[in-house]
Amino acid sequence: MSASNCRNFSGGVFLLVMTNSENKDIDFIKRLTNIVNNNLGDDSFGVTDLSNKIGISHSQIHRRLKGIKDQSISQFIKELRLMKAQELLKQTGLTVSEVAYQVGFSSPSYFNKCYHDFFGYPPGEYKNHIKIESAEIKDGPISKELVVVEKKFYKLNHLLWMASLVVLMILTAYLFTKKRTAVSAKYGNSVVILPLKNLNANSADQYLANGIMSDLQNRLSHVKGLVVKSNINSEKIKVESNTIPQIAKEFKVSYILEGSMMKQDDRIRIYIHLIDAKANVVWSDQYDHNLSSIFDFVSDASKQIVQNLQTPLQYESIQQLDKQYTYNEKAYLLYLEGRFYYRLRTKDGFIKSIELYNQALQVDSNYALAYAGLADSYLTGTWNGFYSVDDGIQKCKMYLNKAQSLDQYLAEAHTTYGGLATYFDSDYKEAEKHLKLALKLNPGYDRANKIYAEFCDVTGKNEEARKYINKAHFLNPTYPEILYLSYLFYCHNGDCKNALKESLRMFNLNKNERQYLESCFNIYLQQHDDSLAYVTYKKINHLKGDLYSSNNLDSVYTHSKIKGILQLIIKSINKEEKDSLSIGNELRLANYYTLLGDKEQAVEYLEKSFNKNPGPVHRVGNNVAFQSLHNEPKYKALMRKMNLNH
C-alpha cells in the first residue's frame, strides 16, 4: 500500500473509531488555535485574553489542554507562535527579528531561544535544514494537530509502525533521562535561583522582580531532596547563554532558574526558564497575568519546576508549594517591596520596610508574614543602632507574638525569635528551641542557618557555628553578611589563615577595598605581624583621605611601632565621634586597648557598648582577641549579665 493510500485509509479508520469526546477535543483545539492565530501579532496576548475570548475560565482551559496535549496554556500559545514563525521563514523573505515581532515575541533573543528549543536549530539556519513535508504543514498548526491525533488512534494496519514509534519513544525517554542523570550526577538535585531581569524602564519595579524569585525560593526550599541556592540579592553574575556552565560550576548546582519580567499597569508578563548545567533548557514557560493572579503563578511555577526536576513530592512539600499567606494582591506586593528595602540594611531601608509592612497590614490585618517582617526590621534595625533598645525590642516582641498567634509554623518568625533571645534576652535555651524549630520547618532557609550559627558562636559551640555558617553560605553564596560572619568566626577562633581567605572572598564579591583592608589589618594585629599591619594601615589612611601624612605615620611607627599607630587610631576615632561613639567603634576601641594591654580601658568600653546596645557585645565572650580580659572582675560581671561563662 502506498504512503498516500495508507494515509487515506488511516484517516478513514480514524473517523470510524473517533468518539464524540475526541471530536469535542479536536473542536476545542481548533477554537483555541483560531483565536490565537487571529492575535499572533499582539505580543501582549496571553492566557487571560484567551480565556476571555473563548468564554471559559483559565483553570478549565488548563485542565482540558493538560488532558488532550499535556501542555499548559502558555506552552500551547507559544507553540502556535513558533509554528507560524517557521511558516513565515519558509514563505517570506522576512528577517528573523521581523518574524519574531510578527508572531508576538517582543524579544528577538527570546524568540531565538524558544525556536531553537522547539525545532532543534536556530531560526537563522532554517534554510539549511530539511523542509517539513508540505502535506504536514499545508493547513498550519491545526493540520499537524489532526495528524498527531490521527496517529494516536490509528492502530489497525499500522501496528508495526506504532510498535516502532513506541520503541523510539522509550529510547528517547531513556536517552533524555540518561542525559539528565549525567548532568545532575555531580551536584545532585540542586538549583540556583538567579535574579529575575526587570525589562521595564522603571527601576522601581525591581522589588517585584526580586520578590517573585524570593517567593519561589522560599517555596522550593521546603522540598525534601532538593537543594535550593539563592543569588537573588546580587547582580554580580549576569546570565548569558555562554556563561551558564560557569555559573553552574561556581554555585555547584545542576540547574539554574532564571527569567525576565515586564510589567505594565496591572498586567505582568514573566518569562521563566529552568536550564541544566550544560545550558540545555529543561523547562521554559511564559506567564501572562493580571497582578491579581500572581498567587497562582508562584504556586504553579514552583510545582512545574519540581516536576521537571523529577523530585518526589511529599504531602508537607505540596502544602508549602500551595500555601498562600494572604489572598490580597495589594498586601502581597507591599510585603515584597518591604523585603526589598529590608535587604538594603540601611537606616532608610529599615524605615521604608516598616512603612510598607504596616501598609500591607492595613489591607490585610491577618497577614502573619507582614508581622514577622516588622519584627525582623525592628530587631535588625535595633542591632545596628537605628532604634533605641527599649523601643525597638518592645516592638519586635509585640509583632512576633502577633505573627505567631496567626501562624505558629512560620520559620521566619521563629528565626527572628531566636535572634532576639540570643542577643537581647540572653535566654539561650529559648533561642535554641526556636531556631531548631525554624530549621525543622524549613531546613533550606538560609537565614535560619545563619542565625543558628550566630547562636552557636555566642554560646561557644564553635564546630556547630562553622557547620551552620557554611550551610548558610552554601544556600546563599553571594550574600555579603554571611561571608562576613564566616570571616568573623574564623577570627573568634584565632584561625587567621582562613580569616584572610574569607576576607579576600568578601572583596571579590563586593569590591569594597576599605572593608577588605580593615579586615586584613585586624587579622595582622591578631597575628602580631606589626609590619604587615602597619603597611595595611597606611593604605587605609590613604583611602580615608590621608588623615595623616606618610612621613608622620613613618615617624610614629619608627619611634613607637604598632602601639603608636594604635594610639593614633584611637585619637582619630575619638575626634571623629567626639559627641557619641558608634557601637562598632566602641568595640574597636575595646579591642585596641586590649592589644595595648590597658585592660581597664578595654572593659570600660565593653561596658559602655553593652549599656547602649547589648546585642553586639554578646560576641565578645567567644572571641580570642579578648582572652586576656577573662580574669578581670568587671569583665566577669559583664559576662554574667549576658549569662555567658566562657
From TrEMBL:
Annotated transmembrane regions: 159-176
Q: Which SUPFAM superfamilies match?
A: Homeodomain-like (SSF46689), TPR-like (SSF48452)
- PROSITE patterns according to UniProt: HTH_ARAC_FAMILY_2
- Claim: Transmembrane helix is one of the keywords in the record: yes
Is the keyword rRNA-binding assigned to this protein?
no
What's the protein name? Helix-turn-helix domain-containing protein
The organism's superkingdom is given as: Bacteria
* Occurrences of domain HTH araC/xylS-type (ranges): 30-129
Q: Which UniProt keywords apply?
A: DNA-binding, Membrane, Transcription, Transcription regulation, Transmembrane, Transmembrane helix
